[in-house]
């Protein structure tokens, strides 16, 4: 990679009052909070569902606990939409199909696949939203950053997956493929979402008086996302 | 009913230190916390599962929110077991089959049945545990009481079910039968659990220096449980 993937992403965005006086910006933020909120409640559902595959009650409780953290994030995002005078359910609705498609195409077939998905998927989503957040007004940015705080269970997933691979090294190959499929599906769904929602894209590329990413910047962002994904796979003991 | 079902249940139990010096008492409390903790995490699972049947995203969020409240209760009960030096998973394990059987026999077939189950089942469990809690040391009692605090969503269930019955009065008959079935299953599972776990029963009936319920007291407790169940059914607009 020619560009440094660790470069800081952007200069701070403008104050909330002036930012929201731009209707394009407001629309974009409502779309963004809608997609985030739906992502969180969908993550809650999937983690609660995947918890059923847990081999022990302790493992089930860990995944369920991750699920409840995601639900808490959902609540703050939904409340923020209400504060902005938007209908939170109307804001989420346009993204339902994409999330459904993503989860249908990445339904884990066993407990280890669930863990990898929880860890890798959560990490990737968090990185992506953090990138976007740098272009937002300080209030929205702060809310998103706190909604993305690690649910604290990453260590659990890493430990469990590493132990499982040590016990049965052959599973490493299968899980590495699984990680690649998760990344591929996430990117292709993200692309579809961006293509269908101009408001979201407008937030990202900025406006006359708002900073944004140019095409090269978007390329560098993807380089950073890929690099962080590779680090997560490595911490699981998996090739990416 | 000859006896007043609203009678106060018992005189306060002894202090924690002397209570726990009785090994029978300690065993009983560990069993009790085990059954409560398992009940809460199972409730979390079922509510998260039933939330999928919600007709709208707002409804789904309400049931998911009830689920996360149950999970929080689970965490405090589990932590208390650890404090008492017990293995929380070993304490829960003996009750897994009963809860599985209960939920298998009462799997809601639609959204309204889910709501009735959430409201009626939660209320019944809370009443029962509250009855038992009066025979416990103050610390354990306080923990149980706070774990049983209403998840605050009862109003939601009541409102939704009443509205649905007004819109389609015929569904009232079906839901009334459903409520009776829930009560019947709960009582028969509770009976099995009590019969199989002497420690639990010992807490209830007391000991040489601990107050407890005699047979007549147990009868009156069931009268109170049934009466409260009927009140909940009535608040849903259903015959019991």
UniProtKB/TrEMBL annotation, chains A, B:
<protein>
    <submittedName>
        <fullName>Ferritin-like domain-containing protein</fullName>
    </submittedName>
</protein>
<dbReference type="InterPro" id="IPR012347">
    <property type="entry name" value="Ferritin-like"/>
</dbReference>
<dbReference type="Pfam" id="PF13794">
    <property type="entry name" value="MiaE_2"/>
</dbReference>
<dbReference type="InterPro" id="IPR009078">
    <property type="entry name" value="Ferritin-like_SF"/>
</dbReference>
<feature type="domain" description="Ferritin-like">
    <location>
        <begin position="24"/>
        <end position="207"/>
    </location>
</feature>
<dbReference type="InterPro" id="IPR059125">
    <property type="entry name" value="Ferritin_actino"/>
</dbReference>
